[in-house]
Specification:
The protein is an alpha/beta fold. The protein is globular. The chain starts with a helix and ends with a helix. The protein binds ligand 6R9. Ligand 6R9 is lined by residues 274, 319-321, 396-399, 421-426, 447, 513-515, 527, 530, 536, 541. Residues 38-92 form the Acetyl-coenzyme A synthetase N-terminal domain. Pfam families: ACAS_N, AMP-binding, AMP-binding_C.
Amino acid sequence: MLNHHKEDTIESVLKEKRIIHPPSTFSANARIKSFQDYEKLYQESISDSENFWGNLAEKELHWFNKWDRVLEWDPPHAKWFLNGKLNITYNCIDRHLTSSRRNKPAIVWEGEPGDSRTLTYEELHVEVCKFANVLKQLKVTKGDCVAIYMPMIPEAIIAMLACARIGSVHTVIFGGFSAESLKDRLKDSQAKILVTADGGFRKDKIISLKSQVDIALKNNSSIVEKVVVVKRTSESIAMEHGRDYWLHDLQQDISDNCPPEIMDSEDALFILYTSGSTGKPKGVVHTIGGYSLYTHITTKWIFDIQDTDTYWCTADIGWITGHSYGVYGPLSNGATSLFYEGVPRPSNPGCFWDIIERYKVNIFYTAPTAIRSFIKMGDDIPKKFNLSSLRLLGTVGEPINPEVWMWYYEIIGNEKCPIVDTWWQTETGGVMITSLPGAISSKPGSASLPFPGIVPDIVDKNGDNVPDNTGGLLIIKNPWPSMLRNIHGDRQRFEENYWNSLSKKSDEHIYFSGDSARRDSDGYFWILGRTDDVMNISGHRLGSMELESALVSHQAVNEASVVGKPHEIKGEDIYAFVTLNNGFEATNELISELKQHVVQEIGAIARPGTIQFTRELPKTRSGKIVRRFLRQIAANQNIKGDRSTIVNPDILDELKEQAQLHN
Ligand code: 6R9
């Protein structure tokens, strides 16, 4: 199987002609049942978009006070549902308590060691209120930032909702990040409180989160005031007097009554950090009203969740997918959302299929990198399990190779489940381009068509349209409810990075995604990848600059340039070219040391696959490293393109020759 997908190149994607239609039984019961229905909805959404979003907001959400205006668009600054008052936790929890959903599981959770927990909507309400009261007791008030650095356990979700309940702003920091990354994000967000756990279980090991916290906070009394620690692994950990508190101690005798804070539609809900093309991660800010509506309606129409469904999104809550389609979207729809602490591992390669069988999961949403690793493990593993409960599959995070799509369709979906390939970003808050499972036929490898209300386009770097089937920059032409509102503390970066990137037509204020794509003659979008120096490693965004800074912070490294190299499971792998300081020798030991150093600086997801030492890097006259050539070398391709811009062209052949040793 993998042999096929290795050959997936842009050319083979261009040749992809298969079309898979929604099964008629699926369409008959779906919310959006036909292509005509989609087209009608799309037309309505575009011809009077404020009316479209206003009607949905009124119908789908509970507001304490209705808004005065749907949209104020002062490009690139948008305000949605002006003066509307709401609380996302009221929509995600309280409103379900007056119906039969009260006793329905909201969260079904399984730990890696096999322990499990179910929280009904009523129980979730109690837990969120108790946690919210703990935060209040710690003097967290509206607008304060609370950081969450947790394994995938129910308390992580409860903590997010507790923040939203009292109007504080959460920033979830992926539990796989190192102390250094944690520290940077805590500083930038100015979080007052940090919620963490003694540890978590991952790949049969204990991840000691609290010790990372201790390193991050060491000699840094100005970062967070207090740390709330959830007991998960019961490992012995250090607790600093006056700073660290066990959650169970704080919760003794705490009230379970905590009315939701009345929030303005444009108050911040969360900050989530993501990599950009500079060394400093961007704190993407989302606000309550627009995000509530957009995650609600995309979940409802794309995943077509019905009240009897069990839905599972495998993303960690440290990423936007976990926020929008693990927590907020499903709960707002009153769904049962499943969470799993662990990941497939050699001791339990079939754990995902086992969970699908045991919990009778109906809707399953995961990433291409995971699917590729399942293919590699062999069809025998999923075939041992009963996957017949599944009725819909989804994918997100990176382009899915057509052959990988077909495997997912045939082996996991048994050719009866539609697949939604959903294109979106941390910045967009929710899915922008996707098929709708009952209405839009899929072409394997294409994210399909825009969601209602979204107007994507493909342009060149001047902002001019490119013909169909030609690659170009993927842009969005209109504002949408869950668009990012800011980069935390850096309005200028927000404006320049996303809205002023096209030289000629910057006055048009179109949203620049940083991805390239092509549109075919049926209007389907095919995402080709990033156009900036951001890599996509197993569906996680990592900026070249962040990695380079991490490498250069090692005493042996003089200069580093990092590019992505195609990888059969991860999509891309990290390939670093490094020059050394005098007195350091290029040894295998140093390679291992540098890899470990990057893990320490950023986290395990950033471990470079290859480090190649060199005496020089290819540079322009103005001293800029030319990554384009380095990408070709890393990919083991012939060097193509104009070398005349480089001052030291000879280095290219030398690098190429040495690269053979690494490939
Ligand atoms: C949701 C999420 C965003 C970047 C995005 C693009 C890539 C996401 C994709 C996809 C092709 C899809 N991406 N979904 N590429 N097809 N269905 O992943 O957010 O972590 O911010 O990453 O991921 O390159 O620009 P985020």
